[in-house]
Each structure stands twice: as structure tokens, then as C-alpha cells.
Amino acid sequence: MTSTTTTPRSATGSVALHGVTKVYGQGEHAVLALDGVSLDVAPGEFVCLVGASGCGKSTLLNLVAGLDKVSGGRIELGDGVNPGLMFQESALFPWLTVEGNVDVPLKLRRLPRAQRRERVAELLRTVHLAEFGRKRPHQLSGGMRQRVALARTLALDTPVLLMDEPFGALDAMTRDILHDELERIWAERKLTVLFVTHNVREAARLADRIILLSSRPGRIIYSTRVDVPRPRRIDSPEIASIAADVTDRLRTEVGRHGQ
Ligand SMILES: Nc1ncnc2c1ncn2[C@@H]1O[C@H](COP(=O)(O)OP(=O)(O)OP(=O)(O)O)[C@@H](O)[C@H]1O
């Protein structure tokens, strides 16, 4: 297999996977994690990836993020685009304040101090944490820490956001509020979002399109558009009906593997 990496193309915010394959290890211990995954994500599209545990969702995000190399196929991103990645754990620096954490990407980009201060304040307003800039991560709730992580990712000024179960550890109410916040920020900033979740209702609540991956190897087995108008409610009958359809397919897939 050839080792191909992420290559740029002109449409900012677009993400395209062409026959992407990922193999971990070698010989009899080799694990085929992804097998021929092709996916075109339009600029500004919100795509949710769902699938059973171990189907390669995180692998796919890591490849798009450029943290790992594909074993075959290729990934195309817009010119000069470095996607932002967010995880279930906020991964904040505990010794820095909220402002200090959001400032990290700006410092790395060597923006002048005054401009950084302005940007940090604007980003904290965006995630509704303007009053909490001087706090440290341990003084915040889980939901607030994820807001800081989101602000820090937005500080990268990237049009592509990769989110790996970002709200997986939060209670239902906090998650519900963060869905609204993320949807607002996504729409305002015209972001392209690739969002991994185990929670099918969450996928139906957020996505323009839901992609279902099979297990070992990960292949796209189903894709559906969510044409429910926004704003949406996670407990609405339309969302429940789409979630039920995807859940049935997921159950069949999990059953096939005897998991
Ligand atoms: N570094 C690695 N070395 C070997 N195998 C790996 C490695 N990373 C992942 N895998 C294997 O690749 C497959 C896909 O893993 P991945 O973490 O991408 O799945 P996932 O869908 O994100 O799982 P989960 O939903 O449990 O987070 C799994 O079988 C996993 O055991």
C-alpha cells in the first residue's frame, strides 16, 4: 500500500476522503481499521459519524487532522487548512487561566499582545464565558471546560472543526445547551464540522448528514440527510424518528458482529 497524506485543494472548508484505508500494525497482527472510505464534506456542512465502538471513527478524525498517515487513498483539505480538533476531555492546561488557555493558539501564531487580548475576550464572549477569564480549569464545571476547549479551538481560525465525542461526558441538560451553542457558532462562522458520537439522537439533532460506519473494517454503510429545519429540539418527534431509523441500522450492524 502507498503512504499518502493530506493534500491541499482550493475550496476552503471542504474535506474530501478518497478511498481512505488505515491499517495498524503488520503481518498477522495487522488491524484494518478503515477500508476504502470515500466522503465529500461541503464547506459549511455539519456531518456526524456514528458507528459501534472500534469502527474507526477516531481513526478517521485523526487522519483528517493530520495526526496520523493514511495507509492508502488520500485526504484533501482546502488550501492551507489546519483543522481544529476537540475531544471528550477538554485537555486544558491546568496551570493556565481560562484566558491563558484560549491565548495559547494565538501566541503560537505570534499575534501581537493587544490583538490577542481582544481575540481572547471576543472568543470568551462567543462561548458565554466572558466573566470567567481569570478562573482556572479546576474551578469550572465539565460543560464550562468544554466551552473553553471550543474557544481555544476557534482561536485557530480554522474553517474545519473535528470533534471526537466532545459532549460525551456531560449530563443531558448541559449537552442540550451546548448543542444550541455549537449550532449557533457553526452557523455564525460557517464552519465545516465532522462530529463523532455514539449518541444517535445527538447526531440527528446536530447533523446535516449522518454517516454510519461498519465495524472492523470501518466502511460507510449508510448515509442520510437530516432535513429537519433548525433550530431543532433533541426530543422532537422528527429527530426521534431519524434517530430510530439510524439506531435500527446500527443494531443490525452490531448484531452482525455478535458484539
Ligand atoms: N494505535 C493503534 N494500534 C493498533 N490498533 C489500533 C490503534 N488505534 C486504533 N486501533 C484499532 O483500530 C480500530 C478502530 O479504532 P478507533 O479508535 O478509530 O475506533 P472508534 O470507532 O473511534 O472506537 P470508539 O467508539 O470505541 O472510540 C479498533 O479495532 C482499534 O482497536
UniProtKB/TrEMBL annotation:
The keyword Nucleotidyltransferase does not apply. Keywords: ATP-binding, Nucleotide-binding, Transport. Pfam families: ABC_tran (PF00005). InterPro entries: AAA+_ATPase, ABC_transporter-like_ATP-bd, ABC_transporter-like_CS, ABC_transporter_ATP-bind, P-loop_NTPase. The keyword DNA repair does not apply. GO terms for molecular function: ATP binding. It comes from the Bacteria. Residues 15-242 form the ABC transporter domain. PANTHER family: ALIPHATIC SULFONATES IMPORT ATP-BINDING PROTEIN SSUB, TAURINE IMPORT ATP-BINDING PROTEIN-RELATED. This is ABC transporter ATP-binding protein. It comes from Micromonospora harpali. The lineage of its organism: Bacteria, Bacillati, Actinomycetota, Actinomycetes, Micromonosporales.
